[in-house]
Amino acid sequence: MPTDNFNTIPLKPALIDNLQTLGYQQLTTIQAESLPVILAGKDVIAQAKTGSGKTAAFSLGLLHHLQEKKFRVQALVLCPTRELADQVAKEIRRLARAIHNIKVLTLCGGSPMGPQIASLEHGAHIIVGTPGRIEDHLKKGRLSLANLQTLVLDEADRMLEMGFEETLTSIFASCPSKKQCLLFSATFPKQIVSLSEHIMVDPVTIKVESTH
Ligand code: ADP
Ligand code: MG
């Protein structure tokens, strides 16, 4: 069951107004529990079932912290598959409608390199992508994370299952040490603890059992 109202969370008013336009009137439980911690700038490990609204939880957090006038990559969202990356990018664009000129770029394996390289030259505020392709762009010097504020691992359990641990560790090495790290997952395999130890500082763990 929804447990709270968006108005009780100190999100930027433009983001709240847009949520009402989108028909989101109440926070889901994972949103109500994780957003205040995310807005406070803490690292978060959040676990909640599929369909519980995890995308909006981390997306609202990263959009709240985004400086739209600074045209640099400020947030990176890593997803296990291209389909998920496309869904997340779509949701971020909907939630970002309230803020003018937010550029969200998706970078996934399986897509031709040429257009991705051209898009990277144009720049973006937010990048959503799959680990292998992001690592590739980083290694070739086409993508800089020097201005990164928020790193999100979405469906971290699936990324680990798919054998991305080493790739993720290599991406972490390209991130500035001072950043916020948000790890979202439907399940909590032991490997998540070792992964989080690599990248997180005193993370707050939030676990929600119900779907809504
Ligand atoms: P998860 O990542 O936890 O599996 P999603 O983030 O994909 O779940 O959300 C599932 C659906 O719920 C999406 O269609 C999303 O737009 C919708 N949704 C998320 N938060 C809310 C909310 N607060 N009110 C209404 N719908 C929401
Ligand atoms: Mg999800």
From TrEMBL:
Motif Q motif, residue range(s) on this chain: 4-32
Limits of the DEAD-box RNA helicase Q domain: 4-32
Domain of life: Bacteria
Positions of the Helicase ATP-binding domain: 35-206
Signal peptide residue numbers: none
Family indicated by similarity: Belongs to the DEAD box helicase family.
Record protein name field: ATP-dependent RNA helicase
Organism per entry: Thalassotalea insulae
Gene for this chain: dbpA
Full-length numbering of the shown residues: 1 to 212 of 462
